[in-house]
Amino acid sequence: MAEFEFEHLIESIPDYPKPGVVFKDITPLLADPDGFAATIKNLADPYRNAGVTKVVGAEARGFMVGAPVARELHAGFVPARKPGKLPREVASEEYALEYGTDSLQVHVDAFGPGDKVLIVDDLVATGGTMVAMVKLIQKSGAELVGIACLMELEFFNPRDILAGVTDKELHSLVKVS
Predict the structure, then answer these.
(1) 3, 88, 89, 98: the active-site residue
(2) Residue 13 domain-assigned?
(3) Which among 59, 61, 71, 154 is annotated as catalytic?
(4) Cα–Cα distance measured from residue 26 to residue 153, given in angstroms and rounded to the nearest whole number
(5) Cβ within 8 Å of residue 82, ≥6 positions away
(6) Is 48 part of the annotated catalytic residue set?
(7) Which residue of 71, 105, 120, 121 sits 20 to 30 Å from the alpha carbon of 36, by its own alpha carbon?
């Protein structure tokens, strides 16, 4: 597949969900068959020979890109959910928000020693959810093989934040400065 121009299928919505925020709407990209296929292929490509056994994505938009990347890599998919959404014993990791904290949970048996895990999300901004997923992987004894996202909001410096918890490089398809 040739190089794909993702930006024309990502809509900027000013003042959503609150004044001053410019929301990046990826639904036109996901609705476009060529755009969706290029997204999944380009997120998966750097990890095709990494032996990925599991892909983890945070709810809910991380599910939209993480699950197809897992399928593309012939790996399992692990949903990282908000508290109270998973029915069995969970591992939890809290992360900071602009005003307060939240947490992500995975089943305690979702991955462990011997697993090679790739984190996939739609967007990274302040890095909180990705840091939480990195820590969940580290606590499990699994190996983190990479971090990939469709869009990186560079002005939040997520690479610096992620460097505080892992030496894995962030792979992003679209950089917003």
Answers:
(1) 98
(2) no
(3) 61
(4) 14
(5) 59, 102, 103, 104, 105
(6) no
(7) 105
